[in-house]
Design brief:
The complex is a heterotrimer of chains A (about 600), B (about 280) and C (about 400). Chain A is of the alpha/beta class. Chain A is built from 24 helices and 12 strands. In chain A, the strands form 3 sheets. In chain A, strands 8-9-10-5-11-12 form a 6-stranded mixed β-sheet, sandwiched between helices. A 4-stranded antiparallel β-sheet of chain A has the order 4-3-6-7, with helices on one face. A two-stranded antiparallel sheet of chain A has the order 1-2. In chain A, helix 2 runs antiparallel to helix 8, helix 4 packs parallel to helix 6 and helix 4 packs across helix 11. The longest helix of chain A is centred in the middle third of the chain and has 27 residues. The N terminus of chain A is likely disordered. Chain B has about 280 residues and is mainly α. Chain B is about 75% helix and about 0% strand. In chain C, the strands form 4 sheets. A 5-stranded parallel β-sheet of chain C has the order 2-1-3-4-5, with helices on both faces. A 5-stranded mixed β-sheet of chain C has the order 9-10-14-15-11. In chain C, helix 1 packs across helix 2 and helix 6 crosses helix 7. The termini of chain C are far apart. The chains are: A alpha/beta (about 600), B mainly alpha (about 280), C alpha/beta (about 400). At the A-B interface, helix 6, helix 12 and helix 14 of A face helix 4, helix 10 and helix 12 of B.
């Protein structure tokens, strides 16, 4: 530790995000796939083509299910849609014949729109409700295909599209599908290791924290549904071509189950895992012929076993580096001197002001006409007995609750109430009483979530790993590493967050907040559960942060810490300000001493 | 025609309502919606046909065995798919585990029973026409169930304990209530209500494995509309759904009836995610 | 299998392909078994047909092999269950044509699967014989090697329409189907046909087969003055509901349509056995009892053979077994006479004339690969089911 303190930051490992998951799947998949025809077994070729097509769909669905954690069971609806759009357009029965490539593009556009329509309820509904609505969509699409005879041929169906030379032959078509599958692997891998991928996982596992760093769930999910719908519809077009003829019978619910389970077997938040899952589930019934009637039953058993025994799926089993034991007696040694690298000097004076704020829950007045001023460069302590409204204050400031009366102003501008995700834009960052982190991701990735609003690359730029995406990544990486070094956790940067001790998680949260370069930092009991030494170092860190110009609001029970480091202290009791002033004034305040500090 | 709408609509609606109550009873005990609700409904019909038609048991014996099987399935659901994932409720793993179990039951039925609809026996030797037993049996079952539940929850100690754990799990445990036993009992009860739905609706819907997903969806609609956890809401929602479906069958017919129901379902949920009788979601932070 | 292994040994696929077809084939041909690829749906939602057909097919193959095979070569039946799923059928068909390199394919037995598999089998140049009814499943231009030894939907509907309009003299007809592919397709095809032979279609509709209540539909038919109901569905639950509702409404009109109207499944779902009166499903003359209760002589002899082989008949239909029995025999005859090459088989089949099948007489020409004869499609009385066969409906002679 002491050695590394003198090392320049550049010596920290560079861009090793996600380890196995980053480049490996694309490369192995492409190479293995390209060599397959050498086996000379064109039956194997059909199975492989099918696996590629399913993967095109699953890769997109993976972002919805595996990353964002939305339980979309009925995704076969989009396969159906894509298959029919492509087939009908190339058949030329309703309008002039289109080239298959053009038809695939149209299908992608239609699929993107319907991806959003099917996904829309996810923005508003609870998990199980959403699962039910996707199921409903899956039924409806087939029903419409049956009923709309003039276009879809009803139950008789329509012939699938045939791609022109050189993709007309079975192996040619296989290469076309393989190419798309490899492209999808590459693109989703890019997304996975971009701010979008990290944000999706944050929505899944730490939704509240995601809002606090400025992640807008609706915008993000809509983007992902667009992408996922588009690739699913393309997969549908290819599926129709492979089937050579489609009827509504071909789009069974079993297929939907296969897609969904492939992701969960593979492991949430992974690309390689679901890829293997898709290949296994596509191939298994072909090579276990006696079991064929039982295949869906076995998928279900597999799903149950995975959920109960290995929630991380295949990806977890392949994650060797996180099985290495960590050093037992770790100490957190923040290096406040490194803060200069993250927190730039404040350009203008800042003032966060609460005027006459009130909020009640039911009949209980949680806060009652509170005034509060947090100045730049100062640590402002907020103390009070349990239930006195401290955390509620934080939640009002950070936009989770709308006050029924009064406003929160930043430099005389009123901050919109109930707009938590917008606070990051005002550079107001916070931590939580119980740390809200993504346990399945590395410490570094957790901290990089703080750089979400700083990212400039669009979703498409990230998809294609354009220069703007790479610039974002380097910046986010550097900022996160600097923040981790400052709080003293850089050695644990690549460890999964759920392997850390509780006290370390508190510092991770502070690092994540620092990456936002906050003008104001709200800390909710950061010292809870820390040792005496750790509390002392935390205090020093907080003071250093404030001296860079950031205003800190510190909610704490440890009176010593408060009186040691605060420039100003406010005492709350029963939702009202009991006293406010310098630590010395508060110490002398009779009522405070009687009510709260004790003798 | 009006008679047909009313008799079939109410009978179907009663079956949906019972499945809705099945969802609710499980939800009240564990905050979990289980995909097995419709599946036990389907199995109520299958077990009934199996016991009475295939094995030639008397109706009463077949009925009791069916209910017992429902209770057994409920207990297995709790032990196998709910208890292990209760710790991490916020990760919604229960959606996956109960889906997996429901799929297993569904496939097992398809393979071991039949993929074709099988006849369901006539339960009572009298009545026909518009007041046939196939119409009033589900309604009677639904009325008895809701009356029984109200009595249980209001006037018995066990019932109050049920209410206590559904209000506040931790507090109930702190009071020394046997939370786990009560949860198992709730699941057994839910299983019985589910099979009761399938059994009394058997003559109308037949012993058919495909009823599982159907009941899963149509049984959930009343829960969503009536507000989760509200049994009265589920009954009102179920009967309304049955009548709506039947009317739509008459007016537009065929495929468009199910599309109409689905569209209404989505729109209502988007406008009022908590349903007509439910409360707004609790705070998150 | 043996060929693909040899390819792997020799390394270069291109040169061996030439060797395999040019040099090695004749040498091994004498002893090599004839591989018939077989695609039944033995599990899944529409498997009861497949199970019935399978009994006939296995019997035929066993008889041929016991009698010394085809020119001394045994038949090897390479079976892949399609599970009533078009996706599985595509995989299975490819496995048969490409990996097992079968000489000829029998199936798929269900139209949904055949629609997807037939173009692939045609592309791989393997002769195919199937009993599926969907009209587009034979096409001498698109699928020159595909032949059908069963009626087309056109023929089936034509026979039912003929019976309703010309024999029962019903002028106002209701046509109802379920929402499956088969159901809607039939409805689409038959309604115009009815109109051309002078009937008035007063009701047409496709209904979800799980719908427990068909009363609304039947009331609409009644209001429109329907004189005969023609249901098109293979779903026994759906059909039995139509029959039950008709009886409960005390509505005494004939129901004429799909063969499943007469299946044991449908019977089991009827509330009372007498509801089966005046229900006339499609059937086939060769597998029907005449007014005196006798089967045609050719069939009597076949039933004898089934009994001797101890094949269960009570739970299936005679025509399914007969159809399954005819398939391999048509193949054996072609290979015996002309050889096992694809062109040889097809060329022989193209000239088949009045081939005396148990299920029906088959005549193919180079331009028409639908071999079944119109006059052999009849209607029968549903409630006359006895040992898998039915009595002709009233109005037929013979």
């Amino acid at each position: 530790m002491t050695e590394s303190a003198t090392l320049p930051l550049a010596a920290a490992p560079k861009r090793k995000l996600g380890g196995l998951d980053a480049w490996f799947p694309t490369a192995v998949f492409a190479a293995g796939g390209a060599l397959l025809p050498l086996l000379g077994d064109s039956y194997l070729g059909v199975i492989a083509t099918r696996a590629c097509i399913y993967w095109v769909l699953v890769s997109g669905l993976n972002l919805v299910v595996g990353f964002a954690g939305q339980i979309a069971i009925g995704w076969v609806a989009l396969l159906t849609l894509g298959a029919y759009v492509t087939s009908v357009l190339t058949a030329g029965t309703v309008m002039p014949e289109l080239s298959p490539y053009l038809a695939l593009l149209v299908a992608a556009a239609v699929g993107a729109v319907f991806g959003v329509i099917i996904g829309l309820p996810a923005l508003r509904l609870r998990t199980f409700y959403f699962a039910m609505t996707t199921l409903g969509f899956a039924t409806i699409v087939t029903q419409v295909a049956l009923a709309w005879k003039s276009v879809t041929g009803g139950g008789v169906g329509v012939p699938g599209p045939v791609l022109p030379y050189p993709f007309a032959s079975p192996w040619g078509f296989y290469y076309f599908c393989l190419g798309l599958a490899v492209l999808c692997t590459w693109m989703t891998t890019n997304i996975a290791s971009s701010r979008f991928g990290r944000s999706l996982v944050a929505i899944r596992d730490a939704e509240v924290a995601a809002e606090a760093v400025g992640i807008s769930k609706p915008a993000l999910l809509v983007t992902v549904f667009l992408f996922s719908g588009a690739v699913a519809a393309i997969a549908g077009g290819l599926f129709a071509s492979l089937q050579s003829y489609i009827t509504p019978d071909a789009f069974t619910f079993d297929l939907s189950v296969l897609f969904f389970i492939a992701i969960l077997i593979g492991g949430r938040g992974s690309i390689l895992g679901p890829l293997l899952g898709t290949i296994i589930l596509t191939a298994l019934p072909e090579f276990a012929a006696p079991l064929v009637a039982w295949s869906t039953f076995l998928y279900a058993v597999l799903l149950l076993v995975i959920v109960l025994a290995v929630p991380g799926g295949i990806a977890d089993m392949l994650d060797f580096k996180n099985r290495r034991p960590l050093e037992r007696h770790r100490e957190i040694r923040p290096r406040p001197e490194l803060l200069a690298q993250i927190l730039p000097p404040q350009a203008r004076p800042n003032l966060l002001k609460l005027a006459n704020v009130s909020l009640s829950f039911g009949g209980v007045r949680a806060i009652d006409g509170v005034d509060l001023e947090i100045r730049m460069g100062e640590v402002h302590g907020l103390i009070g007995p349990n239930g006195s409204g401290k955390t509620t204050m934080l939640n009002v400031i950070s936009g989770y609750y709308a006050p029924q009366q009064g406003q929160v102003r930043l430099n005389e501008e009123i901050l919109p109430p109930r707009a938590a995700a917008a606070r990051a834009g005002w550079r107001i960052a916070r931590t939580f009483q119980t740390p809200r982190l993504v346990g399945a991701e590395s410490v570094l990735e957790n901290v990089m979530i703080g750089a979400t609003t700083a990212g400039r690359a669009s979703f498409i730029a990230s998809l294609l790993a354009l220069p703007s995406h790479r610039r974002d990544e380097v910046q986010a990486y550097d900022a996160a590493m600097a923040a981790l070094s400052a709080v003293g956790l850089d050695q644990l940067a690549f460890v999964r967050a759920d392997r850390l001790q509780h006290s370390e998680l508190r510092f991770v949260e502070i690092a994540r907040a620092l990456v936002l370069q906050p003008s104001f930092l709200l800390l909710d009991e950061p010292a809870a559960g820390l040792s005496v030494d750790e509390i002392e170092r935390l205090g020093a860190l907080i003071v250093s942060i404030s001296r860079r110009g950031t205003g800190v609001l510190l909610v704490e029970h440890h009176a010593d810490l408060i009186f040691d480091i605060c420039d100003r202290v406010t005492v709350l009791n029963l939702g009202k300000v009991l006293a406010s002033g310098t630590p010395a004034e508060i110490r002398a305040h009779r009522e405070v001493v009687n009510a709260y500090l004790g003798a | 025609m009006l008679l047909s709408i009313v008799s079939y609509g109410l009978a179907l609606g009663a079956v949906y309502a019972l499945i809705g109550i099945t969802y609710n009873v499980m939800f009240a005990a564990s905050r979990v919606f289980s995909f097995t609700a419709g599946t036990v409904g389907m199995l109520g019909g299958v077990f009934g046909a199996l016991c009475i038609d295939r094995l030639g048991m008397p109706v009463a014996v077949g009925f009791l065995i069916t209910l017992a099987a429902g209770a057994g399935l409920g207990i297995i659901t709790e032990v196998l798919t709910v208890r292990p994932v209760l710790k991490s409720l916020d990760q919604h793993l229960y959606v996956l585990s109960t889906l997996a179990f429901a799929l297993m039951l569904q496939q097992l039925t398809a393979i071991e029973w039949s993929t074709e609809p099988q006849p369901f026996p006539r339960l009572l030797p009298f009545g026909s026409g518009w007041f046939d037993q196939q119409f009033w049996l589900p309604l009677l079952a639904c009325a008895l169930t809701i009356a029984g539940l109200e009595w249980l929850y209001r006037y018995t100690l066990v019932g109050r304990a049920f209410l206590a754990i559904s209000e506040d799990n931790y507090a109930a445990r702190a009071l020394g209530l046997p939370e786990q036993t009560l949860r198992i009992a709730s699941y057994a009860l839910a299983g019985m209500i589910g099979t009761l739905a399938g059994f009394t609706g058997g003559e109308m819907m037949l012993a058919y494995f495909g009823n599982g997903p159907l009941l899963n969806f149509y049984g959930f609609v009343p829960v969503a509309l009536g507000g989760m956890g509200s049994n009265r809401g589920a009954v009102a929602g179920g009967l309304a759904l049955g009548l709506f479906q039947q009317t739509a069958n008459f007016l537009v017919g065929g495929i468009f009836a199910s599309v109409a129901i689905f569209v209404v379902f989505i729109l209502v949920l988007l406008v009022r995610p908590e349903g007509f009788a439910g409360a707004a979601p609790a705070r998150r932070v | 299998m043996s060929i693909s292994r040899r390819q792997a040994l020799l390394g270069s696929a291109a040169s061996t392909a030439a060797l395999a077809t040019g040099v090695f084939r004749p040498a091994i041909a004498a002893s090599e078994p004839i591989r018939i690829g077989y695609l039944p749906a033995l599990t899944g939602p529409s498997s009861s047909t497949g199970i019935g057909i399978n009994r006939g097919t296995e019997l035929a193959v066993k008889e041929i092999n016991d009698a010394g095979g085809i020119n001394g070569r045994q038949i090897e039946l390479v079976v892949r269950d399609t599970q009533s799923d078009p996706t599985k059928a595509v995989n299975a068909a490819t496995e048969l044509t490409r990996r097992h390199k079968v000489h000829v394919i029998w199936g798929p037995l269900n139209s949904g699967e055949a629609l997807a598999a037939t173009p692939l089998i045609a592309r791989d140049g393997v002769p195919q014989l199937h009993p599926c009814w969907v009209d587009s499943l034979t096409d001498v231009k698109k699928y020159p090697l595909a032949f059908r030894n069963a009626p087309t939907n056109q023929q089936i509907g034509g026979a039912a329409n003929h019976y309703v309009v010309n024999i029962l003299k019903a002028k106002k007809v209701a046509v109802i189907s379920d929402t499956t592919g088969y159901g809607t397709a039939s409805l689409n095809a038959y309604v115009p046909m009815l109109k051309t032979i002078g009937a008035e279609v007063v009701y047409e509709g496709s209904v979800e087969s799980n719908n427990p209540d068909l009363k609304p539909e039947l009331l609409r038919m009644q209001a429109a003055g329907t004189q005969a109901i023609m249901p098109w569905s293979v779903n026994a639950g759906f059909l039995s509901r139509i029959i039950n509702t008709r009886a409960e409404m005390n509505w005494d009109i004939p129901i004429v349509g799909q063969t499943t109207l007469g299946s044991g499944q449908t019977k089991a779902l009827l509330k009372k056995p007498e509801y089966w009166e005046k229900v006339y499903p499609n059937n086939f003359r060769n597998c029907s009892y005449n007014a005196t209760g006798a089967l045609p002589p050719r069939t009597v002899e076949f039933v004898e053979r089934i009994r001797k082989a101890k094949i269960e008949m009570g739970d299936t239909l005679l025509w399914w077994i007969a159809l399954g029995y005819d398939g391999p025999r048509l193949m054996a005859e072609a290979i015996k006479a002309a050889g096992s090459g694809p062109e040889e088989i097809a060329a022989y089949w193209n000239k088949v004339k009045a081939w005396p099948g148990v299920y029906g007489s088959i005549t193919w020409t180079p331009d028409v690969h639908d071999g079944f004869q119109n006059e052999e499609i009849v209607m029968c009385q549903a409630n006359s089911l006895k040992e898998g066969a039915f009595t002709l409906a009233p109005g037929y002679t013979g």
